[in-house]
Q: What sequence folds into this?
């Protein structure tokens, strides 16, 4: 039997699935479920709207698939480590309170070794969503630089909202003249340029969701950078100039 790929546009976890059992779990008894099967991964990705940030393979096919799997749409620390990419960028945004003082952070790894930390974009009247979007935007800018040189990049973000904004929802918003049924598109000033940037590099960049504060080092470091931006009121997005002492950095205030 030929292998099929199942696109779930509306379900418990939208995305692409490699077996019917996993797809059914997302759409069974889900009101307004929208899904369809395709004969190839390429057709499924095109139908979904480009590269999917939460590509999933079932347990039954895990040994046959070279694609990194997700657990409930989110990568574990082990799966993050297994992703094949020369550059791995972790993003996070913090806001204290929400809305309130916001900042963004990045942790950049080369060949799975911490290489750079970035922090800034302090906004005294920001939100958690704007901070997360700003962090992902900076990751896209970094990714654009590296992919131009033929270097593979993977981005890991703990904000489903940010990922879905630029990889899923913005596809239809753009087609509809940046309008959506039922109201305004919040944070459009960020989402529009992010979507345009993503469209130019989406075939060369992987974007994955990870859960925050579950022991994924890169995510934890990006979190500390976002709060450092708040504490130091760093408006520019700046390279962290102190020694990359991971233990000491993780001891900083968390978001």
A:
């Amino acid at each position: 039997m030929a292998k099929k790929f199942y696109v779930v546009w509306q379900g418990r976890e939208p995305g692409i699935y490699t077996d019917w059992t996993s797809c059914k779990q997302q759409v069974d008894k889900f009101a307004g479920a929208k899904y369809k099967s395709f004969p190839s991964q390429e057709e499924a990705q095109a139908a979904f709207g480009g590269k999917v940030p939460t590509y999933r393979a079932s347990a039954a096919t895990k040994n046959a698939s070279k694609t990194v799997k997700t657990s409930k749409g989110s990568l574990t620390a082990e799966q993050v480590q297994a992703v094949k990419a020369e550059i791995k960028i972790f993003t996070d945004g913090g806001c204290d309170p929400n809305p309130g003082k916001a900042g963004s952070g990045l942790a950049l790894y080369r060949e799975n070794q911490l290489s750079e930390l970035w922090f800034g974009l302090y906004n005294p009247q920001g939100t958690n969503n704007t901070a997360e979007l700003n962090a992902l935007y900076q990751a896209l800018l970094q990714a654009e630089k590296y992919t131009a040189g033929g270097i593979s990049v993977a981005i890991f973000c703990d904000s489903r909202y940010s990922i879905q904004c630029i990889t899923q929802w913005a596809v239809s918003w753009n087609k509809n003249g940046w309008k959506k049924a039922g109201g305004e598109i919040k944070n459009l000033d960020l989402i529009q340029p992010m979507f345009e940037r993503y469209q130019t590099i989406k075939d060369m960049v992987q974007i994955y969701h990870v859960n925050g504060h579950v022991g994924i080092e890169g995510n934890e470091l990006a979190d500390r950078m976002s709060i450092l931006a708040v504490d130091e009121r760093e408006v520019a997005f700046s390279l962290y100039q102190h020694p990359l002492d991971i233990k000491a950095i993780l001891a900083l205030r968390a978001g």
Notes: The longest helix spans residues 128-147. Confidence is low (pLDDT under 50) at residues 51-72.
